[in-house]
Write a structure and sequence with these properties.
This protein is about 50% helix and about 10% strand. The strands form two sheets. It has a four-stranded mixed β-sheet. Helix 5 packs across helix 8, helix 6 packs parallel to helix 8 and helix 7 packs across helix 9. The chain is globular, with a radius of gyration of 18 Å. It starts with 15 loop residues before the first helix and ends with a helix. The relative contact order is 0.16. The N terminus is likely disordered. Bound molecules: fe (ii) ion (FE2).
């Protein structure tokens, strides 16, 4: 993870460019899939020099390390400072959602009714999401092997980190944290249609496609699930989790070049995760996006 705090890099679980790296025979032979694999903080991470923050992350990580899939998720004991950080982020992103989020997202966030003053507990959100769409959330200590993460989607399980970003950068995180997981992915997974799309992505990855096929899928995933936009009432609205979990991305998306949603073109389009996205693929409606992406993924799986 090499990034500056002014970047918008989100080294995400779902970044399939990283999945393609584990098709390397040597790497595959030397590593067993492990949902609790932790990536150490690098010197340019906002929390690297904060011993208290690192201790907090380790403490929260222990919940995941001791977790047995399918059992109830123990509560994370967040500090008042962490709750305050969540509140600050929610107060910034809430108005951005009202201006820029698609109807499907707004419907889901209303149904989930996440608290804005306290960080919600993963187990409580998971129960609610499961009731709405059948998908459930399970804790992981940190970044896991992307293939482990993506293949769990096929089973209707989304692996979530529980720690929160460093308080010095409330609107930025270089890796998935509880804000990205809950305000981005968990909310969208409360939608049956998003849940189905995520299951299909997992099914495609499970078939261990060739390196080229996975790279193409990575780009399609990036330009839809993470950074997709649709037209609604003659306005551009976000449905991508990378946009919906970042007030900065939401506010800047109107200045992006909009291209018609063409998944074959998206599959060829390179992207740079360290910058605000200069070009976005825009469907004429949520329904058009859902139909096109479903057919694309079914064809691959
Ligand atoms: Fe993500």
């Amino acid at each position: 993870m090499s990034t500056k705090t002014t970047d918008t890099l989100l080294l995400d679980h779902g970044d399939m460019r990283l999945v393609t790296s584990d098709t390397d025979e040597t790497l595959a032979a030397n590593s067993s899939p492990n949902r609790n694999q932790i990536i150490q903080l690098e010197p340019d991470h906002p929390g690297f020099g904060d011993a208290e923050y690192r201790a907090r992350r380790n403490s929260i990580a222990h919940i995941a390390l001791g977790y047995k899939p399918g059992t109830s998720i123990p509560h994370a004991l967040y500090t008042e400072r962490e709750h305050e950080l969540w509140r600050t982020i929610c107060e910034t992103i809430g108005p951005a959602h009202r201006r820029h989020a698609c109807a499907e997202y707004l419907d889901c966030i209303a149904k989930l009714d996440l608290p804005i003053k306290r960080i919600p507990q993963l187990g409580n959100v998971s129960s609610r999401v499961q009731m709405l769409s059948g998908f459930r959330l399970e804790p992981v200590a940190g970044l896991v092997q992307p293939r482990v993460f993506l293949e769990s989607l096929a089973n209707g399980v989304f692996l979530c980190t529980q720690y929160i970003r460093h308080h010095s950068t409330p609107l930025y995180t270089p890796e998935p944290d509880v804000v990205h997981e809950l305000l981005g992915h968990a909310v969208t997974l409360a939608s049956r249609r998003f849940a189905e799309l995520n299951r299909l992505v997992g099914a495609v990855v499970k078939r261990r496609q060739s390196l080229e096929e996975l790279e193409r899928l990575a780009r399609v995933y990036w330009f839809t699930i993470e950074f997709g936009v649709v037209r609604e009432n003659n306005q551009i609205k976000a449905y991508g989790t990378g946009l919906l979990s970042s007030a900065g991305e939401l506010e800047r998306m109107d200045s992006a070049e909009l291209r018609p949603l063409d998944l074959e073109a998206a599959a060829q389009q390179e992207y740079d995760p360290t910058r605000f996205q200069p070009a976005l693929y825009c469907a004429n409606s949520f329904e058009e996006m859902y139909q096109k992406l479903t057919h694309y993924l079914l064809r691959l799986s």
